[in-house]
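Comment thread on ticket #2218

A.B. wrote:
> Attaching the input chain for the structure job we discussed in standup.
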Amino acid sequence: MKRKMLVAAALMLCAPALFAQVAKPTTTKQQTQKKETVKANATSTSAKSSSKKVTNTTAEKKVVAKSAEGKATQKNEVVKDKPTVAKPIAKDSVTVAKAAKPAVYKSQQHAKGANEAENKVSNLRSALAAEKSFATKLQSAATKTMMAKTVLEIGGDESLHIDSTFEYDVAVYQESIEYKGKNRIKNSGDYIVVYYSSNKPQFSVQMVNRSTNARRQFFGDFEKRTQLNMTGLYKMASGDKALLDLKTMDPAYPGEINNLTKLSKTGNKKVIAGVACEEYISTSKKLDIKSSSGTHEPVTAHMWMPMDPASVFPAYSSIPDGYKAEMEIMKIEGSFPPVIMPLEMYFEYANGDKVYTYTTDIVLGENRKVDIADINK
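C.D. wrote:
> Ran it. Output below, let me know if you need it in another format.
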C-alpha cells in the first residue's frame, strides 16, 4: 500500500514532463498543417483572383475594342451616308481658334473697319455738302424772288397829295468821308445827289451809303407844301408824306445840319465848282447815345454856302413868301434851313471823329425825271 502511494506520487510529479514531451510534437504538426492549409488557400485565392482579374481585363479589353470598333464602323457609316456634314467642333476649340488667329488677319480686319469708317465719314460729308448746296440755292432763289419783287409803301397824312415823278434840271454831286482821328474809315460815307428845279420850287436830296447800299431820299415841294421822306434797302422801301415844315423837315444829309445852332459867318469866301461860297461856322451839341446819362457832346461845323441861293436853285424865287420869310428869320437866329445844301462841309466831334462832305460836280441845264419808285432800283 505504501509502495502504491509512492508510485502514484512519482507519477504525479513526472506527469507534466511526460505530457509535454508527448503533446509538443502533436501541436507543432497541427500548426504546420494549419499553416500549409492557410498558404494553400491563400495561393488558391490569389490564383483565382489573378485569373479573375485577367479574365475581367481581357473581357473589358474585348468590350472596349468592340465598342471602339462599333463606333468606328458607325462613324464610317455616317461619313458614307452624309459626306457633306462637317464634324461638330467644340466651343472650346472655337475659342482657341479665334485666339490663335494670326496678327495679319487682325490687321486686315482693322483696315477693313477703318475703311468702312472712312466711307461713312465721306458719305456724311457728301450729304452735308449736298444739303448746304441745296440751302444755298434755296436762299439764292429766295433772294432773287425778293429782289424781283419791289415793295414801296407810302404812309402819313392821307389827305395830302404828292407827285410820283419830279422834273429837275440841276444836279449837285457830292461825297462824304468819315475819319476816326486821322485815319479814314474804310467804305465809310455816302454818295449824295441834290436835285433842284428851274421851273418849280421843288428839290430833292438823295443819299446812298457806301457800305450797306441803304438809301435815303427826301422830296420837298413848296408849290404843294408837301414833303416825302423815304428809306429803302434790297428793293424794299417805305416813306411818310407830311406838310412841308422848315423847322421839322429832315432831309437825308451827312452830319447834324438840322441841329446846328449859333450859325455865323466867318468872312471867308471861296469858289466851289464855279459857285461863289462863303463860310459859316456853328457850334452845337449832339446827343451822346453811348452815355447812359443822356449827355450831349459838342460838335463844330464849318460850312461853305452859296452866296446866291439861285445859283444852284434857279426856282428859289418861286418859293412862297411865307417860307422865304421864315428862312430869313432862321438865318438871323443862327439856325440853318435845310433847303440850299452846303457845297462843302466839315464836322468835327469832341472825340476826334470827323465827317467831310465835298462837291465833285455840278450839272446845270440837264433835264431829268426822277420817280419816287427809283429808290428800289
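A.B. wrote:
> Thanks. Noting for the ticket: The chain has four helices and 13 strands.
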